[in-house]
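Example 3.2
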Amino acid sequence: MDTNTSGNMPQASAPKSKKNLIIIILVLLVVLFLGGKVLGFLGRNAAEQAIKQATGGNVDVNNNGTSGTITTKDGSVTYGTNSLPTDWPTDVPVYTNGTIQYSASSNQSGQTGKAVVILSPDSVATVKSYYTGALATNGWTISGTQEANGATVIVAEKSGRNLSLSIVGSSNGTQITIGTDK
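Structure, written as tokens:
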């Protein structure tokens, strides 16, 4: 095992901007699924304070209650719209028999990311079959698939880019969550 000169195990750490992006996205998910409907103003206020603390207070939160933009010195995250981000990659297929419930787009220190959540009345198997074919047609290579408890997760790569896709069945239909970088 490699050790550093002090004899301690080396520790890998993400760049600060990447940690901030992860913290911001996690807080946004809490606000979206809990804060927006259950916690109301208190949830949004707590989320704003958490984001300010995670970024050292250098943040501007512009939130209209259902969507917004968070701007830090490292970039911005736009979230909560019911349409694709304007810069959605054309080679990332979007399931057409469904409605967009949520989307987000970020650009932190030049590292971009996009996500969309779609709700469809189609079965998990139908959606999975569509994406297996559509990803290949668009030049993506599926590098991993995992299935458990009625959910499917697909990971794909293309030209140094990454895509993750989760397909989860529920009483409301099938939820499709797509996340991609670049």
